[in-house]
Write a structure and sequence with these properties.
279 residues, Prim-pol fold, 3 domains, six-stranded mixed β-sheet, 9 helices
Length: 279
């Protein structure tokens, strides 16, 4: 019997922001337009399009403790189909040190302070109180999951929750990053809008912009195409109602420039995306 439809709401009641996961651990697209992550939630943004949900429906940004959302008919149907419960560690004020194999677990046992541990398929999750940016592959078999990330709920684990140690934060700082040009501000007028805002909450737009920044920042290749598709998805979802501001656009441009895009290419990509959508 699938216990997820009862487990997930219970976790949300205790303050854990949850979301349903597919069998391959990917998150659901929680609206009809995003079924199978067919719109802006797809990692490669291959088919960007509008999301008709009144809340974010992709990845970590969809995680919530709101009982009106978690228990809605739409989410209830997703819970029945889900094969795992995901949660947003940063939203729960914790950081997960994801240890993917036994060698990584052995390293943690000799390096990190004891804390709550949860067994996974191949290794363990070590969970600490405190938040930080999420970084993958900080060392062999070790990922850090906190803000703008999600993890699988695999049970309460064993041990006592410890404070996030400096040695974990240092792993993120030591992660090498490519040298990029220094971003500079570029002013592009926000769409005039005029349509009815269907987002209902400022959090929807904020999470959408944060996810767009993340997609651009995490792109390892095809930067120009990724930037254009991300701009297209943002404009498609937020460009017609007037809630998108120049400050939001500036954040996207800064993320793109940090990946090597020039200010001119940013402006061109934004203009081309707006033209493609008839704006």
């Amino acid at each position: 019997m699938n216990s997820i439809p009862t487990t997930a709401p219970g976790l949300a009641e205790h303050g854990l922001p949850v979301l349903p996961l597919l069998a391959d651990k990917r998150p659901f697209g929680l609206c009809r337009a995003c079924e199978g992550l067919a719109c802006g939630g797809r990692p490669n943004m291959a088919t960007p399009g509008p999301c008709v949900c009144p809340w974010p429906c992709h990845g970590w940004a969809a995680a919530t403790t709101d009982p009106a959302v978690v228990g809605s008919p739409q989410w209830a149907a997703a819970w029945r189909r889900a094969r795992a419960v995901g949660y947003h560690p940063g939203g729960a004020s914790v950081t997960v040190v994801d240890l993917d194999h036994q060698a990584a677990v052995d390293w943690a046992r000799t390096t990190l302070p004891p804390t709550v541990t949860v067994a996974t398929t191949r290794g363990q999750h070590w969970i600490y109180r405190g938040t930080m940016r999420s970084v993958n592959a900080v060392r062999p078999g070790v990922d850090l999951k906190s803000f703008m990330s999600y993890a699988r709920w695999l049970g309460p684990g064993t041990g006592t929750l410890a404070e996030l140690p400096d040695v974990v934060r240092a792993l993120a700082e030591k992660k090498s990053t490519p040298v990029r040009p220094t971003p500079r501000a570029v002013t592009v007028p926000a769409p005039a809008g005029g349509g009815e805002c269907r987002h209902r909450s400022p959090a929807y737009l904020e999470r959408g912009i944060a996810m767009a920044e993340q997609r651009i920042t995490e792109a390892a290749s095809g930067i120009h195409a990724t930037v254009y598709r991300t701009f297209l998805a943002v404009l498609s979802a937020h460009g017609r109602c007037g809630c998108l501001t120049e400050a939001h656009i500036g954040r996207l441009f800064i993320a793109a420039q940090a990946q090597g895009e020039s200010p001119r290419h940013c402006a061109d990509a934004w203009s081309n995306a707006a033209t493609a959508l008839g704006m």
